[in-house]
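Q: what sequence does this backbone want?
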């Protein structure tokens, strides 16, 4: 009898036992007919019954590599690979009733800077997972998830409003008329502090649906004050800063915009699909960060968005 199959010193069941940080060779994700390079990092877990000392970790590693090799060099959905691995782990470890596999990797997209039109290579974090669970009748139920992490710029509306009041006062002091000051402040966005913010959108993938992760990335990026780039020439920098200052947003605003755009882009999802929306603002003038997030079913999200469309701006 192998050591893992022996009775443990303390017989308590464990929910997740497995391997983490398993990297695999270069692979591909499809985006608008292009093959995008991704280097996923996997983690795989199974539940461990009370009577068993440990899992065969090498078998989980072997399963990840063997299943992944079936997809290597091909266009694939990362969440589908996770599902295949989870099912295979359950098949090879009969005593397990639940297997969870997660993969995270950076996809590098070629983009063009907004004004200078230089080529820039931008990283987008892909997040995928799958849970395979044995049902009493012997069938395996699979829940897949796919998501993205995207960096962008958010500009603070509160500081900008306070700055506008100070600028107004200074302009009046040096002789500008109030009507001229109002015109100036209407067309020239004043300074505010800006953040590099990370937006995260993760959703369950219902059976019969295929979700393009890069469409999720577009939703996140469009919900920021402005996008960010690895390469920016001077004319690009002013375009990004000006755009962000014209569209100041709290992290809370960005999350809510993401939610509305999600409903608009995916109107036909089942109501029971659950979605996570999150923005973490890496603050520039504070020593702490700020976060806003919400996990919600699609049915409840649609109701919230529809209720918002009837909102007249008064108290509720």
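A:
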């Amino acid at each position: 009898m192998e050591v893992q199959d022996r009775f443990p010193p303390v017989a308590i069941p464990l929910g997740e036992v497995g391997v983490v940080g398993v990297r695999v060779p270069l692979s591909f994700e499809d985006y608008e007919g292009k093959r995008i390079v991704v280097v996923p990092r996997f983690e795989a877990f199974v539940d461990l019954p009370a009577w068993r000392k440990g899992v065969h970790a090498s078998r989980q590693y072997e399963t990840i590599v063997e299943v992944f090799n079936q997809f290597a060099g091909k266009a694939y959905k990362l969440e589908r690979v996770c599902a295949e691995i989870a099912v295979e782990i359950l098949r090879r470890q009969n005593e397990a009733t639940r297997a969870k596999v997660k993969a995270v990797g950076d996809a590098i997209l070629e983009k063009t800077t907004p004004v200078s039109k230089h080529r820039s290579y931008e990283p987008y974090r892909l997040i995928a997972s799958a849970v395979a669970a044995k049902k009493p009748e012997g069938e395996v139920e699979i829940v897949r998830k796919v998501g993205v992490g995207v960096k962008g710029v958010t500009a603070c509306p509160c500081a900008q409003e306070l700055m506008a009041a100070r600028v107004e006062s200074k302009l009046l002091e040096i002789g500008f008329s109030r009507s001229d000051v109002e015109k100036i402040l209407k067309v020239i966005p004043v300074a505010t502090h800006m953040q590099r913010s990370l937006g995260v959108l993760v959703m369950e993938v219902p059976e019969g649906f295929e979700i393009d992760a890069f469409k999720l990335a577009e939703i996140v990026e469009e919900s920021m004050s402005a996008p960010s780039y690895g390469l920016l020439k001077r004319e690009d920098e002013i375009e990004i800063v000006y755009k962000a200052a014209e569209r100041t947003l709290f992290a809370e605003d960005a999350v809510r915009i993401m939610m509305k755009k999600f409903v608009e882009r995916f109107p036909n999802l089942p109501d029971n699909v659950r979605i996570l929306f999150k923005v973490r603002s890496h603050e520039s003038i504070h020593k702490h960060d700020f976060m806003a997030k919400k996990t919600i079913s699609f049915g409840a999200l649609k109701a919230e968005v529809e209720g918002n469309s009837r909102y007249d701006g008064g108290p509720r």
